[in-house]
Structures are given as C-alpha cells and as structure tokens.
Amino acid sequence: MTSKNKLKLFDMVKDSIKYVFKDWKAVIILGIIINLLNVLTSIDFSNNLIIFSIIILFTLILTLFEMGYSFKIIEESLDGSIRPPIFNNFKDMLVHGIKDIMAYIFYGLIIVILIVIFLIIASLYPESLPLIILIAMISTSFIFLLLNVSLVNLALNHGKIKAIFNIKDLSRLLIKIGLINIIVLNIVYMIVEFFLYSSFVLLELLSNSYIISLLYDLIVSPFLIIFSKRLLSIAAR
After folding, report:
1. How far is 135 from 132, CA to CA, in rounded Å?
2. Residues 212-233: what's their mean pLDDT?
3. I need a surface site. Which of 116, 159, 164, 220 has the fewest CB within 10 A?
4. At how many degrees (to 10) do helices 3-21 and 179-207 cross?
C-alpha cells in the first residue's frame, strides 16, 4: 500500500468512528434491540407452542429491524449522509431487512454448498487435505466478500432484489473498491472488534459482573454494526 492509500484508509476509519459518535441515541436503540434479541433467544419455551411461536415471531421482527437499519446506514452513507439514520419508517426497515436476509441466505447457501463439496473432495483425497483447506478458505472468503459487495449494490439500487445477484454490477463494484482494499477493511474491522471484545471480556473477568456483558451488547455491538456498515459504504463511494 502506498502512503496515499494508508492515509485514505486512516481517514475512512476515523470518519466511521466519528460517524457513530454523532448520534448516541441510534447506538442505544440498536443496542436495546440486540439485548432484546439475546433475551428472546435465551428463553426456552419449546414445550409451549404458542409462547414459542410468539418468541420466534418477535425475534424475526427484531432481526429484520436490525438488518433494515444496517441497510439504511449503507444507503444514506452512499448518498453522502454524515449522521446515522433516524429510526423511523419501520415498514421500509422491515422490507429492507427481508431483502438483506435474502442476500445472507443466498450467499450463505453457496458457502455451505462449497464446504460440502470440499469435504467430499477431502474424503476422496485425504493426502491433499492442506491444499483443499487452503482453497476452501480462499473460496468461502471470496463469497463472503461478494456478500458485502451485494449489500452495497442493493443499497445503490434502492433495494431492488436483482441487485443482490447481478454479477456484472458486483464485479464493477469489486474493481471500484478494490479487492485488496476490501480485505484490508475487513482486517481493520476484525482488529477493532477483537480489541473491544477482549477488553470487555477482561473487564467482566475482573469485575465478575453481568453488567459488563450487558454494556457490551448495549454499546459495543451496535457501535461495531454501525462502524462496519459505514466503513464499507464510504469505501464504495
């Protein structure tokens, strides 16, 4: 990477951090949604079909809200917004959440199919296991990158479902952003996530308090969601 690219990367990371801090209300609301999801998924009412169905329904709705909000972050950032979106127009958020889930399911299925294929190949040629693992990691990582680019393309096309699968558009976006840049941005995100997560785990161990875990879900998890979506979208501008 040249010094110019390093500066650009630094500016993108700085912009994404400042972007999150411009609206703490959005962080807290998203954090409440994440905490509610954690509570709902930890409750076991499988022996009561009615309550279990209600929990599944609420979990699905909250997940759609979270994903719909992520879509709005990308869409508004691509349009030049400098603040996180306001939580409004819940119908649109639900619809966009469904479209985001479609992207995750589609590319998730491709990854699952690839893993099954590589497992079959590994069982037939066990002597080539290291090479098969390497190719599998590269292939699944590339599909994951395509998933990220498809979410950007979905936002660029204002939620048109075909944008998820438009290989021509996805190829152009990959070239525009740069494959290396996307990889570097993902590494930066993982470093930030690891630093924050390990810091809170250490705090929880030292304090022996459930409040630290609650604060992580309330503040850090939404911070990471907003930060990552902002980082991805400004890289595509």
Report:
1. 5
2. 89
3. 116
4. 50
Tokens of 66: 């979270």
Rounded Cα distance between 30 and 80, Å, is 22
DSSP at 89: -
What's the one-letter identity of residue 158?
A: H
Q: Is the pLDDT of residue 123 over 50?
A: yes
pLDDT at 176: 85
Average pLDDT over the chain reads 87
Residue 210 CB neighbour total at 10 angstroms = 9
Encoding tokens for residue 158? Answer: 């204002």
Per-residue confidence (pLDDT) for residue 134, from 0 to 100: 92
The predicted pLDDT at position 6 comes to 45
Cβ atoms of 66 and 225 closer than 8 Å: yes
Residues with Cβ within 8 Å of residue 41, at least 6 apart in sequence: 59
